[in-house]
């Protein structure tokens, strides 16, 4: 089943407990996959991803604004693949501040307070959502 709106059952997967995977590709199609600290709920058709390190990801997004995130619910282990389109980066404002606070909490839980620093909140529009595992076993 494919949809394009974030639902309530997906929200626990956006709390930073299980690191999401993020995939981008360059203009020539060379892929890059990385683990990120957070996919942050903005509204039912937008998310923000935390930019901390991302050199190749930033370069890829400047060439090709399409990306994919895979999120996992820590309660049920349900997984979703979210097709996204990069819109903009924010380095200040309420959303950036909320993400910085959540990232600080994630860093504290993982013992990496000296490593995690939010450079920007990268806003993305949701283009598709596909459940890839329903948490019900095989």
Sequence stretches where pLDDT stays below 50 over 5 or more residues: none
| CATH superfamily label | Electron Transport, Fmn-binding Protein, Chain A
Summarize the main sheet.
8 strands, antiparallel
CATH architecture: Roll
CA-CA gap between termini: 17 Å
The number of helical runs is 2
CATH topology: Pnp Oxidase, Chain A
Average predicted local confidence, pLDDT = 89
The CATH class label is Mainly Beta
The rounded Rg comes to 14 Å
* Structure classification: alpha+beta
Question: What does this 3D model show about the protein?
Answer:
The protein is of the alpha+beta class and 138 residues long. The chain has one domain (2-132): Pnp Oxidase, Chain A, CATH 2.30.110.10. 19% of the residues lie in helices and 41% in strands. It has 2 helices and 8 strands. The mean pLDDT is 89.
Q: What is the element layout, followed by pairings?
A:
Layout: E1 2-3, E2 21-25, E3 31-35, E4 39-43, E5 46-51, H1 55-63, E6 66-72, E7 79-90, H2 94-110, E8 120-133
Antiparallel strand pairs: 1-8, 2-3, 2-6, 4-5, 5-8, 6-7, 7-8
Keywords:
single chain, 138 residues, alpha+beta, Pnp Oxidase, Chain A, 8-stranded antiparallel sheet, 41% strand
Question: Would you summarize the structure shown here?
Answer:
With 138 residues, the chain is of the alpha+beta class. The protein is built from two helices and eight strands. It has a single domain, classed as Electron Transport, Fmn-binding Protein, Chain A (Pnp Oxidase, Chain A).
